[in-house]
Design a protein that fits this description.
The complex is a heterodimer of chains A (421) and B (71). Chain A has 421 residues and is an alpha+beta fold. Chain A contains 18 helices and 15 strands. In chain A, helix 4 packs across helix 12. Chain A starts with a strand and ends with a helix. Chain B starts with a strand and ends in a 10-residue tail after the last helix. The chains are: A alpha+beta (421), B alpha+beta (71). Chain A: It is found in: Nucleus.
């Protein structure tokens, strides 16, 4: 699309019933600065066009021109003994090291390894408020850290990378550079060697950090090559791929822990976890009252207090439930399959965990803007309908002529344009 | 000309709302606008204060549920 497109033409493409979806899509695209919509005026009709940078970059990418190296430069040298197993192993050790460091701050010193993440990673976790340096020599975990632990691996990776991007400037890197490097990384192929010599100097520095995260592996013998690990290649995959990919990663991690699912939870809220991994036990102890520990399992109960405590630390009931069901023991899965694909967890427990959360959440808070003092009914109706169409309206009262929206920029423009007319 | 006011929309039970109104009646530092039985707008910077006050108020009125049971 090289020429601007009049909005009225665009309206013709869209089924009248889907106007709402069209407006939401347009609003999103312009927030992302992918399209620009000209301000409404009396002389010229409104037109929509792709922003200049996006258009040229898109054309370049589609035609495969330019030397932007968006997809990395594979190394032609044959490398000895770097296989998928080694990469998965490496990624897992690095990543678990980071998780252990975060958990360690709560885990009653269940594990005091000399290993763990490098200083740079520790600083990053602190900058992102996942852990805080307490008064004691040991550091403490924060709310954000708790929810970080319960996320899926892929989400965890992204959380950490976003922190990294935010703090890039402190480490004397340009965050645009970092971002483009990450997207490049996401398009690389697992188990393939890539050249480091074609990278710019700042990218080489980034590579060092990514090695710390376990996203990239550099064989000790040849420093001119790097291998993306599974963590890196799944960065930009879409939602459906994500599931199977994270399953792949789970399979990789399960080598260390024995079985994939290990949690049995009964209708009387008792919980048995067949694991000896300090990481998993520490995560469980965030929301369970653990009572007994055996060499290969821990037993405990999910109680109102333990859930309350978890929720006060910022963990949601949905996070807990999804953690329990993704790590459910094969026996629970078998039982649910026997009932023709019923729920994996006992419904009473799931409901009760939700109820415990609702008990604490007595109000639902949404930051935003209250619009009031409309001059007449017509103006009010127009504005509230527009707010609804772009998907920002969350509350309205026709009698009082007030409504509440989450964002006000576009609405402000809209009100101004009404004034013009 | 319509006005836009920054704030936090709070949706809750009527009972909770009346507690919030009671807390606010002491110094009028929290509520921007009462909208209806279940919704009101709160000043953005006072939200965490209000949450703490509400928690305290509820602690006084509620009996903790019995949570015994053997392991």
């Amino acid at each position: 699309m090289s020429k601007p497109l009049p909005l009225t033409d665009l309206d013709l493409w869209v089924h009248p019933n889907s106007k709402r979806q069209k407006d939401q899509a347009l609003s999103l695209l312009s927030r992302l600065h992918i399209v620009t919509i000209t301000a409404p005026s009396r002389e010229e009709p409104q037109v929509v066009s792709l922003t200049k940078n996006f258009r040229s970059a898109l054309q370049l990418a589609l035609t495969g021109g330019g030397d932007h190296q968006s997809f990395g430069v594979p190394s032609s040298d044959v490398v000895e003994d770097v296989d998928l197993g080694l990469l998965d192993d490496y990624a897992r050790t690095q990543w678990e090291g980071i998780l252990h460091y975060v958990v360690n701050s709560v885990g009653d010193g269940m594990r005091h390894d000399s290993g763990g993440p490098t200083e740079a990673v520790k600083d990053l976790l602190q900058a992102g408020n996942l852990v805080t340096k307490g008064r004691h020599a040991n550091s403490g975990i924060t709310q954000a850290g708790f929810s970080f632990l319960l996320q899926e691996v892929n989400a965890q990776v992204w959380t950490l990378l976003l922190l990294w991007i935010e703090n890039a400037e402190k480490m004397e890197m340009d965050n645009v550079d970092v971002l483009s490097f990450l997207f490049m990384l996401g398009s690389l192929e697992l188990g393939r060697a890539y050249n480091t010599t074609t990278l710019t100097e700042s990218q080489q520095r980034m590579l060092g950090h990514l090695v710390d995260f376990g996203l990239v592996y550099i064989p000790p013998s040849t420093s001119t090559q790097f291998f993306p690990t599974r963590l890196a290649t799944t960065l930009t995959s879409d939602a459906s791929a994500l599931r199977s990919v994270s399953a792949g990663f789970d399979a990789a991690t399960s080598a260390a822990t024995g079985t994939k699912g290990f949690i049995i939870i009964e209708t009387n809220y008792r919980l048995y976890a067949y694991t000896s991994s300090p990481l998993q036990i520490a995560v469980l102890s965030l929301f369970t009252k653990l009572s007994t520990r055996y060499p290969n399992m821990v037993a405990g109960r999910v109680t109102r207090d333990s859930i309350r405590q978890a929720i006060s630390q910022g963990i949601t009931s949905d996070q807990i439930i999804s953690y329990l069901s993704t790590h459910a023991h094969p026996q629970l899965l078998k039982a649910s399959a026997a009932q023709g694909g019923g729920p994996v967890l006992p419904p009473t427990v799931v409901d009760q965990i939700r109820l415990w959360q609702i008990e604490n959440e007595r109000m639902k808070a949404t930051p935003g803007f209250l619009f009031r003092d409309f001059e007449n009914q017509k103006e009010y109706e127009g504005c509230s309908r527009y707010a609804d169409e772009i998907g920002v309206l969350i509350w309205k009262n026709d009698a009082k002529r007030m409504f509440f929206v989450t964002r006000h920029e576009q609405l402000r423009d809209y009100i101004k344009s009404r004034k013009v007319k | 000309m319509p006005r836009a006011i920054r704030g936090v929309l709070v949706e809750c039970d009527p009972s909770i709302k009346s507690i919030i109104v009671k807390i606010d009646s002491e110094e009028h530092a929290y509520i921007v606008e009462e909208l209806d039985d279940q919704t009101l707008v709160i000043k953005e910077n006072m939200m965490s204060m209000l949450k703490a006050r509400l928690e305290d108020a509820l602690k006084e009125t509620q009996q903790p549920a019995d949570d015994s049971g053997s392991d």
